[in-house]
């Protein structure tokens, strides 16, 4: 049994590949390395460099490696940038997913775990997001992820495809010292890179309707996320019933200022964040219940916020030292 992980050379994807390997499940990685890193793929795991838009290549990989399921993480993941690049976003996230599903149908691959996003909810009107919270994406990125979920649903009706979609919130930390987040847009790497460069990290807005005035978000550890991908893959392989959508959320959340204070604590670098203006479209609070995922996908918050921050800092500084 082999699972293909698209985007498996990226930050989240490499943790998913590691989690599969930790329980003895074989994987093959397909990644165009536009944001992934070849060195993130474990030794012994085949890496095919290519695009999910290349349907013939997908067919070839699925057939040659006798793939029995796919974890689909490849895509364009920058919500803010997607507003300026909507056509690129849709090509990668919608056309790319359709290409993958076509190749799977052609080669008889029966199961897929899809990397979706909290961006499908837009600005929720509830303090705690559940899977029943209405979807109202506010960016081409969020829209493209929702369309991806629809494609899986419709293919399930048409062909019997077994599938589930996991909606991520803010994925942070490191589950292995050599793997770290290299995104130029995520909060943890932005803070870390600022500190490493001797700059002061910045908070965008301090007048939100939250206890300390800064946005509250749901932060989950990447290793916990990866663990639940394996649980989902095993359930689909076994034919166990799964919901079509799960939130991987903490149920609690933390503010941006709390993140700054935690980073100062774990790094030993004392700083007072700079304060800038609000960013357009940032809601006060987005926190999700992970109750359904706990029931079905072995979802559990195994790390404190401090442990998340410390693991992220350790992995990034180790990489810097060894470079």
TrEMBL record:
Q: Which reaction is this enzyme known to catalyze?
A: UDP-alpha-D-glucose = UDP-alpha-D-galactose
Which keywords, in A-to-Z order, does the entry hold?
A: Carbohydrate metabolism, Isomerase, NAD
Q: Which GO terms describe its molecular function?
A: UDP-glucose 4-epimerase activity
Q: Name one GO biological process term.
A: galactose catabolic process via UDP-galactose, Leloir pathway
Q: What is its EC number?
A: 5.1.3.2
Domain annotation NAD-dependent epimerase/dehydratase: ranges: 4-249
Its pathway, per UniProt, is: Carbohydrate metabolism; galactose metabolism
Q: Which cofactor does it need?
A: NAD(+)
Q: Name one Pfam family in it.
A: Epimerase
Homology family: Belongs to the NAD(P)-dependent epimerase/dehydratase family.
Its protein name is UDP-glucose 4-epimerase
Question: Whose protein is this, by species?
Answer: Cellulomonas aerilata
């Amino acid at each position: 049994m082999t699972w293909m992980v698209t985007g498996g050379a990226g930050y989240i994807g490499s943790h998913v590949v590691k989690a599969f390997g930790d329980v003895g499940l074989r994987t093959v990685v397909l990644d165009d390395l536009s944001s992934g890193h070849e060195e993130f793929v474990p030794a012994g795991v085949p890496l095919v460099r290519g695009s999910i838009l290349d349907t013939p290549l997908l067919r070839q990989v699925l057939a040659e490696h006798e793939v029995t399921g796919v974890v689909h993480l490849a895509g364009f993941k920058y919500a803010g940038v997607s507003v300026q690049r909507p056509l690129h976003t849709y090509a990668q996230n919608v056309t790319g997913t359709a290409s993958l599903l076509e190749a799977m149908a052609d080669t008889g691959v029966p199961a897929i775990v899809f990397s979706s996003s909290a961006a499908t909810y837009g600005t929720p009107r509830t303090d705690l997001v559940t899977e029943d919270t209405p979807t109202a994406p506010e960016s081409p990125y969020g829209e493209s992820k929702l369309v991806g979920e629809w494609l899986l649903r419709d293919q399930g009706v048409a062909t019997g495809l077994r599938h589930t979609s996991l909606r991520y919130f803010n994925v942070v930390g490191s589950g292995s010292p050599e793997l770290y987040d290299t995104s130029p847009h995520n909060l943890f790497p932005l803070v870390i890179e600022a500190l490493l460069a001797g700059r002061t990290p910045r908070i965008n807005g301090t007048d939100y309707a939250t206890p300390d005035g800064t946005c509250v978000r749901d932060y989950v550890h990447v290793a916990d996320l990866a663990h639940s991908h394996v649980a989902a893959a095993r359930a689909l392989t076994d034919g166990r019933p799964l919901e079509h959508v799960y939130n991987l959320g903490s149920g609690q959340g933390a503010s941006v200022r709390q993140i700054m204070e935690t980073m100062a604590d774990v790094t030993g670098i004392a700083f007072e964040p700079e304060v800038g203006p609000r960013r357009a479209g940032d809601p006060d609070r987005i926190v999700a219940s992970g109750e359904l995922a706990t029931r079905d996908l072995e979802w559990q918050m195994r790390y404190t916020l401090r442990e998340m921050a410390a693991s992220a800092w350790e992995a990034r500084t180790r990489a810097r030292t060894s470079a």
